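Propose amino acids for all 184 sites.
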């Protein structure tokens, strides 16, 4: 029985998710690989990746490139640049799905205002999105509507009036109140 494989051998994996500003500085980053062991190695990777992709026009569609023996999928929106890095043997279409799911979920949650100021004000939502889409490098979900729904429920302020909540937040609040009354 020498043919055992871990589940990671069959699942597509992400090495990192980067969201950088228009100067190449970090807005939100998450690394899942030990390929960059130190913070200075991570910063150097981000700087050189940003420099390589700066001249491209990846505003409407995601672009794919090879960089340091990795597949990098990237897209820009106003003053933010989104990057997904996978190994050179990963399926590019799956990585594009991860990037598009992340981008669309963030757009839904930020009401299509994707810029640095809005991203910094809602950094908790962005990190929740990243955590919902990838866990320890394994891809969990790529559907933007499902991601946005999960993040909205986790980020919900139960004390807010129902008129200021999204539909999914209002349903979750109603479900919570119903559960409390049934358990009494």
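Proposal:
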């Amino acid at each position: 029985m020498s043919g055992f494989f871990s589940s990671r051998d069959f699942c597509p994996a992400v090495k990192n998710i980067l969201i950088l500003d228009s100067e190449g500085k970090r807005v939100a980053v998450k690394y899942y690989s030990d390929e960059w062991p130190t913070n200075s190695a991570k910063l150097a990777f981000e700087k050189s990746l940003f420099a390589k992709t700066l001249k491209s026009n990846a505003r409407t569609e995601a672009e794919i490139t090879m960089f340091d023996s990795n597949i990098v999928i990237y897209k820009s929106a106003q003053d933010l640049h989104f990057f997904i890095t996978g190994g050179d043997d990963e399926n590019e279409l799956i990585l594009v799905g991860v990037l598009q799911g992340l981008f669309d979920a963030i757009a839904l949650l930020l009401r299509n205002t994707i810029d640095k100021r809005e991203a910094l004000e809602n950094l908790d939502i962005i990190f929740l999105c990243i955590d919902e889409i990838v866990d320890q490098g394994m891809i969990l979900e790529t559907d933007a509507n499902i991601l946005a729904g999960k993040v909205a429920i986790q980020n919900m302020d139960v004390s807010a009036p129902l008129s200021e909540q999204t539909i999914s937040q209002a349903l979750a609040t109603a479900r919570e109140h119903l559960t409390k009354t049934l358990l009494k």
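The two ends are 54 Å apart (CA to CA). The chain is about 40% helix and 20% strand.
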